[in-house]
Amino acid sequence: MDYKSLDADRKEFRLLRLRSRSYQPPPSQEESELKGINVFCELEHAFRGDCDSYTALSYAWGDMNINNLQPVFVSGAIIKVSFNLGAALRELRNEQNDLLLWVDQICIDQNNIAEREEQVQQMQEIYTMSARVVAWIGPAADDSDMIIAHLTSIGERAEKVWNMHLFGRVYEAAIQHAFMEVLPILADRKALGIMSKASTKFLQREYWKRLWIIQEFAVAPRVDVLCGGQLIRDTTLTTALNCILSVIYYLEDHGVKGTGHNLATSGHTIIEAYMPILSASKFVREVTSRRSDYRKSKFISRENTLFHNVVSTSVTRDNTGNHECTDPRDRIFAVLGLALDAVCFDKFPDYRSSVENVYTELAMKLLKNGPIDILAYCVRTEPRSMQSWVPDWRMAGLEPNSYSPWRNNLAFLASGRKKFEGDVNFITGRMLSIKTAVVDTVMAFGDVWSPDRRGKLDPEATLRYLSEIRGFCAQSERTKSDEVDSNTSKIAIANFERAGHSEYSLDFELKSYQQVRTTFTGGGDHTTDSSNGVRFDNFTRYCNLMRRLRPCRPFISATGYVGLAPPHVETGDKVVVFLGGLVPYIIHPSGPDTHTLVGEAYVHGVMFGEHMEGNPKIETLILE
């Protein structure tokens, strides 16, 4: 199909007029050409801000194999679209009236890179100005009609009480009122078994995992979620999921016996049936919560920047995966419309630049104007296709051991409280010039600590990990003999308690560490019991904190600093603090005057600016 060019200066775009089910094609059209085609459309040119009301479609393109493409009739020509889009268009047809749509696969000339870049840049506005967004989940399957009806029933009942503050008796009342009318269904074990499977399949559909839909979902004035012929409002879906999860948490925390709660009699059944939703709804809850966050944001903050949006959609705390995109450059471009500082990235989107160039351009801009600790997201790979200081967002990254740099309660401040400006520059060959305080060099290191983030800790590996840290602490002249265990207990979890919580408790770390050692050596008997009103006791909590760490190695420096380094650390690597950085880093000498970044580190005795208090020598190092 031939596309007529768009006038970008006038914010021109195309809309798709989807003909009704009763539409009959012109009699002049050859019958043989239209055989098997039941979707008829017309492309119309319009101007954003001055056009008829339209619906924007949000969907996953799906399989683009030529054998699975679907024919549709558009403005006198037959074109092929993805199977999923074809199904959406067939379902969206009204019986008698046309529907005006914006559909990227058809409304953008996908073969025109310049137009594609311009239209992608305007997608946030296109979705914002629509009358509504239809989120097409896919054709009906796996009892999806039943689960949508069930979630609608829960959500509509819960919406009446779920907006109040849920604390104490009010929390119980909200659960009581929201589920009073569906308790008989919830207590039916057979029905719950079917519902649980249907919920999991619905919540794990490809749509929810696609990166692009986050922006489309977030900026819409209204979102209707459509699966087959069944529709549910996004607010109803969100409320239903929050309500179900709150009930599970409530029953876990308070137990299911002796509470006097009406749900107690069916509590075990509910937990068993709906527990799979906790993990299955991960992507759905991320998408819906991002919509809520976006609508609340009215000013630029650390949590509304492009950096935050890229990190939060590319980095995970567990191994459940991240939102997917076909083009790696869309790790940046797909969330650009959510960033309130998007105007600072005037070169994006640019589909003519390589992935490496896009990622490098982003890193240069962020390092020049934003946090130094973007470097914490650099993970060494072999072979290296980019500079060591450029994060590769293609990798399914795990959250740094130093935690997210925008966390308000983060206490790490390795470079001290002094503000530094103009400390980053770029020189020929995309070398990074950065002001640095060298702390020490790596003298020795232990085995890689890389536990299963969702499974149980291996006792042998855990004891070896703790033993290596303890051995380094005992060897260090910086550690007093009566501080070996307490320092070990902090280092083993990267001092999470002090860094992440205002109510710092040394007792928690030390006692939990000692309990882990005792239990894993067979000298203790530990069981968890959620009926006492606590979902996780300190033993379980401490194990979870060890489990959340990125792969790392215990290490000791030449002068006795003990900490956690990246897996690729080598003897002789430098431990440094970059001015303005929250955490220390490990760098590797790569030439007479150059270094490569190995990665972030936890270094006990450096994390809170202790090294900088002695006015150390500041030098400019070059990272390649």
TrEMBL record:
Taken from the record, one Pfam family name reads Het-6_barrel
Q: Domain Heterokaryon incompatibility: where?
A: 54-216
Top-level taxon of origin: Eukaryota
The name under which this protein is listed is: Heterokaryon incompatibility protein
